[in-house]
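Objective 1b: paired records.
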Amino acid sequence: MLEMSDFKESSWLRWAADSPEDADILIMGIPFDNAVSLNKGAAKAPNHLRRLSVELSDTTDSFRPVKRGLLYDFGDMRSELDWKRYFSSVEDSAFDLLERDRFCLFLGGDHSVTIPLHKAFGRKFDGKKRGIIHFDAHYDLCPEYDGHIWSHACTEARALEGVVTGDDLTFVGVRVAEETELELMKDHPGIVTITSENVHDRGAEDVVKTLIERYAGYDAVYLTLDIDVLDPAYVPGTGTPVSGGLDPITLIKILRRLLTELPIMAMDIVEVAPPLDVNDITSWAALRIIHEVFSSERWGR
């Protein structure tokens, strides 16, 4: 179901390995935004990020060069009109990537695409101690939203149906909630929330300490990152912005430590909507995060 897109000459492929077996990071795009509740446009993100990535420098602000032969990009999932069949295809393709025992980076798309990605993660690490860290302005814990159980507002409600328990789920950056989400959380008291205000007051180091302690002893962690975890001042091009979010350097400092100190086996970046953006500000914020993943100490040299 995967198809290569027209990005071969203008992307991060300058850091590509010759084969998936030689790479540390496997990339797959899911250009789907039919589950949004407000503004569409996230389907355009995977290829747009690839095209802009030609301008990425060799290092980030930590001045670590990105390793040659680091990644292998499988391209995008082909779109389908049958939503159920499409999500099944996404799950199976993601599972195939995870089965290669490499770090997997998935590019959305709206946050509903994380539903099948979580399911693939659960299949891959069946019987293992697994957790989810969810960076977002929203909980995405609605049992259903706008009459749909696969809305982008239902991502973690679906994960609680067999992928993880509340004791394995942490939210970072949340600053709004639906009443139905608060009701659901009563049934899962183990869920931990670190609000955006908490991050501001406590700082990156303290948040990292909390997450490392919480996931000590875990075999695998999935990190899902909705770009609207950042304040709209930094990411205007997203479908459901909420004021009062994180700033980019704080987010980068948290992610940098988590990548090296927790068994994060897969990660996605979702809800980047280029048609809603201003001067590609949001895409550049997402690329800064991706660049940090690429230059992580985790991959050595």
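Objective 1b, second protein:
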Amino acid sequence: MKVLEAHNITKLFPGVVALDSVDVAFEPGEIHCIIGENGAGKSTLIKCLTGVYQPEEGEVLINGEDAIKNKALFDKIAYVPQEIDLFGYMSVAENLFLPYEKSGIKGIVNQKELEKKAVPVLERFKIPVEPDALVKDISVSSQQLLQIARACVHEEYEVLMLDEPTTSLTTSDTEILFDIVRTIKKQNKAIIFISHKLEEIFSLGDVITVFRNGKMVAGDVISNVNIPWVIKQMTGKELDQDQVFCSEKVSEKVLLEVSNLTGEKFSDISFTLKKGEILGFSGLVGAGRSELMQAIFGYLPVYSGTVKLDGEAWKLGDTNYSVNHGFIYLPEERKKQGILPVLSIRENISVSTLDTLKSGFSISRRKEEELAREVIDTYDVKTPDTDKAIQFLSGGNQQKVIIGRAMKCNPKVLVFDEPTKGIDVGTKAEIYRLMKELAEEKGIGIILISSEMDEVKKCSNRIIALYEGKQAGEYDAKADKDTLLSAIIGVNS
């Protein structure tokens, strides 16, 4: 018997058919992978299956019963969102058992008992933290695993839904997660696994369902299909998986020169970036790549060392100076640090150039609209209008808005920190082409930080490897994966 079913689900938003007569079912003891481009309808489906949205048409059945009529049935579904959704100033144990009533905890909470109860759960999920530690003080990887553990603590669940669960995980943590998922599968739970990483789907999944433009376009047993088939079903066309996007117009002019830079999470880092070059930074989560760039940008402190841009001494510790002098950092946490979610696309674009949009004592709506339209047209942002809140765009379209906004600041150096995080394979290629175009046609020096080895090799002219905050080597992009992997895990150190 199927534990969770969706029949003829249709969900409408103003001007958009988000789901169009979708039928899909999930069985116990099966890992069912869902894939599709950003905006294909996956997130809307999830919200219908968890009771967040009520569809205009169709029904959701849990163990054969209508869950839309009986909302309590949705408690059978344990959902883990892509974004970290924990309470930073509460302890690991407190976060693990929230909400307490579902954990069988009543009355006044005994902190020591709670921490004692948390220990075996932390051990089972191999989360290397103490139960009394504040969540804000543990690594992002540990937070992600904690979030998954929290969903599984409540034993009454029959379906575990994981939305891009490995986005913030290291390679070793991903393997831990996969082992846990396989164990849960053996407990006869149904698992819904949503990911843009095709290698994960083929490593873990039993069944695959592909969405495109709000419709379920294909589905099969994983063993019957291959990666080119999945890409073609997702995009409606075949993509060249071997295409490279490194810049072919690298100047001999050194644009950025970093010498012996040391900060809290990195030490003695030196490198140069040439005009029109794409310089990749590879390393495990926590290697210090983001912290290094944030320090150059002025967001984090620098203890020693120097930076030059265009041959001129660089002022550290001042983000306004960085933006005004051509060094722009595009953050990894797009939704938390890159966008103003409740504001419109127009307002998100104009916020970086308000001085140029003045009309008397206010901002000219006409100029703001013209600027937004220019960015939307230039970077092919898919949206019905400029007034749509940016939080409702797909991840890929949000990233295009951020890039377009950055370009209005006339950058000399653009840092892309995990630019394709949570982005589908088709939109990834668009972002890669955009980086290549900016390097070749605008002469911008681009720094690419990525945890995906294929991404770094595919896009970079040179690659710098970091391990535990130290430089582990500099490599040509043609270096083989084993060599790079040895560097980022410290074998060469």
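The mean pLDDT is 90. The first strand starts at residue 4 and ends at 13.
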